Amino acid sequence: MNIIVCIKQVPDTTQVKIDPKTNTLIREGVESIINPFDMYAIEEGVRLKEKFGGKVIAITMGPPQAEAALREAISLGCDDGILVSDRAFAGSDTLATSYTLAMAVKKIETFDIIICGKQASDGDTAQVGPGIAAHLNIPQVTYVKHIKEADEEAITVERMTEEGSEILRSPLPCLITVVKEINEPRIPSLKGKMKAKKAELTCWKAIDIDCDDERLGLNGSPTQVVRIFTPPPRAQGEILEGDPQETTSKLVEMLKDSIQ
Amino acid sequence: MSIKVIKDKCTGCMICTRVCPFAAIKVIEKLAVIDLDKCTICGACKEVCNFAAIDIQKNPKKTQDIEKYKGVWIFAEQKRGNIQSISYELLGKATELAQKLGVEVSCMLLGHNITDKAQELISRGADNVYVVDSPELEHFLDEPYSKILINLIRKYRPEIVLCGASAIGRALVSRVAVNIHAGLTADCTELDIDETEKILLQTRPAFGGNIMATIISKNHRPQMATVRHKVFKEAEVDPSRTGKVIIENFDKSFFKSRTKMLDVIEEVTSMINIAEADIIVSGGRAMKGPENFAILEELAKVLGGAVGASRAAVDSDWMPYSHQVGQTGKTVCPKMYIACGISGQIQHLVGMSSSDIIIAINRDASAPIFQVADYGIVGDLFEIVPLLTKKFKEALNK
Amino acid sequence: MINYLLTEEQEMIRDLCRQITDEKIRPVAAELDKTEEFPWEIMKVMAKSDLFGLYIDEKYGGMGGGILELSIATEEFSKGCGGIAICYAASALGTLPILILGSEEQKQKYIPDLAAGKHLAAFGITEPAAGSDASAMQTTAVKKGDKYILNGTKHFITNGGEAEIYTVVAMTDKSKGSRGASIFIVEKGTPGFTFGKKEDKLGIRASATNELNFVDCEIPAENLLGKEGQGFIGAMRVFDKSRPGIGAQAVGIAQGALDHAIRYARERKQFGKSISSFQGIQFMLADMATQVEAARALVYASAREVDSGVTKNYGMHSAMSKLYASDVAMKVTTDAVQIFGGYGYMKEYPVEKYMRDAKITQIYEGTNQIQRSIIALGLIKEAAGS
Predict the structure, then answer these.
(1) What CA–CA distances, in Å, run from C54 to C74, C151, C242, C246, C315?
(2) C56: nearest Cα among C127, C128, C110, C136
């Protein structure tokens, strides 16, 4: 079974803080990590390979530094890493990104399953996975929390919904996006880390993936950010300190009319 | 598009380096230098520059006859034949946008035995409801639903298409947008119309809610967006409203799906769905263990609310994921949100900060949660919460 | 931390162990301290990450490193929990006798599974009446044909009950005193080999400390490591190699407590200021950090000496590393509690655990009084030889 895992390098948003004086992002010391949801995608891909044999290829689109994400993916059990990187991709929105990744996937000869994380933690769009499936015209199942069965022909998966879940069966090749309930990502092995360090990565530029330049980067992105601002803070509230008996009585008095 | 620094104007003041969300600007020898590998031309730097030293050139490009696209459309999500509340929230907003544009509001309603539900949408503000009613559409499946939407959009050319940012909505419209080469903005929390340009201003949180970004799709139609549940108020019901119901018929080939639905499993849960609750009592890391959530449940019971949890509490397996509030959990907008032992990381705040009243209980007076709270008590939640339960019980005569 | 000019591979080991500590050890440390549950889940993670083989030759499935690599790993784990770290390090202690004294056949049979972390090992020397005075040992091994019959009791055995492979010191000839001791491999499940009570300890409570009971326990004669009579000297050689690991555990515990103290000092406000702005606190932190760094330098230097194979009498130096680092750990963790003030004394806060965990490092693998004897003896020998 040949598996492609699409990953993204993101700033660790849990470390991002706002400078209360200037209302701007504090980026110092914020590390780049693999998008947390993609860690589940990698793990699921590696588990499928361990069960069915075959190969897992990690693919990412990003600046040259994103190769660190691919090396980490290899340390976790992926066999190869492909970095799709070109100045022409800069400024891509989800449409251009999914187009570019889909064209790169087409260049990889055979695959059975493409696995993506549910969404990226910096953009939170959840649009690139289904976008790739649409470009390739293959079936998709999003929010997969469990792969129940898989064989050469099809997979049966459980998709998480707001109310519970659904069981779906899709022929291969197909694309799934996974949620964190699907597995617990492993910690790399020392041998894996050593292998990743030495691994030779493939690097593709725009000319390598047979794409239409008009659909790349800013040119291929219908959406455009026109303004960035910090959300307005709420007005300062009333903070009670002191004896718990008194503070709780006061609070109940103030709120009791808002309830019922 | 291109961006450059006008060397004569730049003073190296570094304001731009601080606002750049992508760390793409460095000041080298008193001159701002933009790293084009990182820059997305978002314009944050241009906006703050006091010296007009940053120049962004936009290619004026009109690829489609955008004037031919008219009307605000929504995808009306239904489950088991019931229209979901997100659809009414979308209608409320769509009506407002349509008024500003002077156009009609239309809904796409797909399902089985669903036609008679179209009137509910009309009473909430729809002028037209396009109904596709077929047994194959009983449950949501990505392929037939997206094929039908693509066809309807191509046929009727709406200028705006809105959809809920639900599990279904996100999967569906991503696929649609790719096929019609439309711009799509995910998870919007604010929508408005630029009155002069007549375009949709789509605002959404980015970087884990640390900043907000306003996004447009100037040269492409329709302008598509998904909208977070519980951000907009539901449209009011007006039974006297009238509108058109248009039945759309499709060839069987449209209903074909390579993916087959085998089963639907509804999660059995005794607790109220927190996204729908009017009052939420939430616990965080300071709850220390799953057994202590009982005191929150007691308070929630007295208040008629539900129990939520921060990511820290869910990650520690004290509460199931379905109760998680925040960036990676649910967005909630209750009348009252009581945060107990939640420090108030930004990822949590984005999920609850639009609640009507926020109450924080925390031992640490400097916890960020107090900055968004309307009322706060500094103290030990294990002491405060039971007292609140007791006193609310008395005050509410329960 | 001083740049110790570690190799890329050693840095990789540190990063990996730090990840395991942050993601797997820290979240459960307080809970396991309370429940005394053996951290099998974490042992499995360490095994899958190839960490049980760090100091073992590649031909037995190890990673080909040495005591320095083992020390780096132990130090990182100890920053999160000294108890969980010792479960890991004690397996190395139980494995070392096989590596030092074992025949090729014995190594081929036992080492690969230990290197892969499929089995844990434990070393059994201490007895109720034979602590520092190992020559007072009562456990006997009597040869009968192609078997040895073991009788006696070992106690305070780390990993006892949990490990699969035990290296046990027993008297084969009591008349010869310490020269009559030998070391044997005993597998868990051997008839006549049972476990006694699990100890309820002050610290390192996630680790298992157990009694080993031998009642006419028959083991194959080929399980003798080296020759009869090599037991005592063999044990000393084991400890000479293992002591930097205890030093590393102490350094890790001290560093972990110091990290908490620095963070707390910055957050805690008194008299309207962060307490880190007070010189009284600043000087304490400065002393703590200096002592930890000095201890680490000594531990790394002695571990490197052990690995170099150049010097033979490294025992004195490894004793120094264990002695100094463990005394530092006790002092630094006590000071960390002091910086936390009243909160530091409460179990709700993490630092009192470091203080409890630190104490054992001054006691086991030879009390610090024994270490001083070893060092003094080494000094006198050196002087006499020159």
Answers:
(1) 11, 34, 14, 16, 21
(2) C110
Average pLDDT (C241-252) is 98
Largest alpha-carbon pair distance within chain A? 72
A24-28, C37-41, C42-46, C141-145: lowest mean pLDDT where? A24-28
- CB neighbour list of residue C290: distance below 8 Å, 6 or more residues apart: none
pLDDT value for B268: 58
Question: Is the pLDDT score of B59 beyond 70?
Answer: no
**In chain B, where does DSSP find H-type helix?**
15-19, 44-48, 85-101, 118-123, 142-156, 167-180, 293-303, 311-315, 346-352, 369-372, 381-395
CATH number of residue C34's parent domain? 1.10.540.10
Architecture label for domain A2-215? 3-Layer(aba) Sandwich (3.40)
What is the domain count for chain C? 3
- Six-digit token string for C88: 């890991």
Any idea where the domains of chain A sit in the sequence? 2-215
C107 and C184 housed in the same domain: no
Residues B354 and B231: beta-carbon distance below 8 Å: yes
Q: Is residue C164 a part of any domain in this protein? A: yes
pLDDT at res. B15? 85
- Contact predicate B144/B256, CB 8 Å: yes
Q: Which residues of B touch A162 (CB under 8 A)?
A: 166-167, 275
Which residue of A228, A253, A257 is the best one to mutate when testing the B interface, meaning the one whose CB has the most B CBs within 10 A?
Answer: A228
Complex prediction ipTM: 0.87
Task: Give Cβ neighbours of residue B245 (< 8 Å, ≥ 6 apart).
Answer: B115, B118, B119, B122, B128, B129, B131
CATH numbers and ranges of domains, chain B: 2-57 (3.30.70.20), 66-255 (3.40.50.620), 274-395 (3.40.50.1220)
- The predicted pLDDT at position B270 comes to 45
The verdict on a CB contact (< 8 Å) between B37 and A126 is no
The predicted model scores a pTM of: 0.83
pLDDT at B394 over 60: yes
The answer to whether residues C371 and C258 belong to one domain is yes
Would residue C2 count as lying in a domain?
no
Phi, psi of A225 (to 5 degrees): -80, 125
β-bridge mates for residue B214, sequence order: A227, B203
- Give the domain range for residue C252: 241-385
C382 is catalytic: no
pLDDT at position B159 over 50: yes
C376 and C269 co-located in one domain = yes
- In angstroms, the separation between the Cα of residue A192 and the nearest Cα of chain C is 8
What band does C132 get if pLDDT is binned at 50, 70 and 90?
confident
Q: Do residue C349 and residue C278 come from a single domain?
A: yes
Residues in chain A where the model's pLDDT stays below 50: none
pLDDT of residue A122: 80
Distance from the C315 Cα atom to the nearest Cα atom in chain A, whole angstroms:
30
Phi (first) and psi of residue B203, to 5 degrees: -115, 135
Burial of A253 (0-12, 13-18, 19+ CB in 10 A): exposed
Among A190, A191, A197, A198, most C C-beta atoms within 10 A, so best to mutate, is: A190
Q: Do C12 and A193 touch (CB under 8 A)?
A: yes
Q: Is residue C236 part of a domain?
A: no
Last residue of a domain, one of C231, C249, C284: C231
The domain spanning residue C183 has which CATH number?
2.40.110.10
Domain boundary among C171, C198, C231: C231
Q: C240, C208, C57, C44: which is closest to C122 by C-alpha?
A: C208
Which has the minimum average pLDDT: B111-120, B175-184, B331-340?
Answer: B331-340
pLDDT tens-place string over residues B225-243: 999 887 888 999 999 999 9
Q: pLDDT band at B351, cuts 50/70/90? A: confident
The pLDDT value recorded for residue C144 is 96
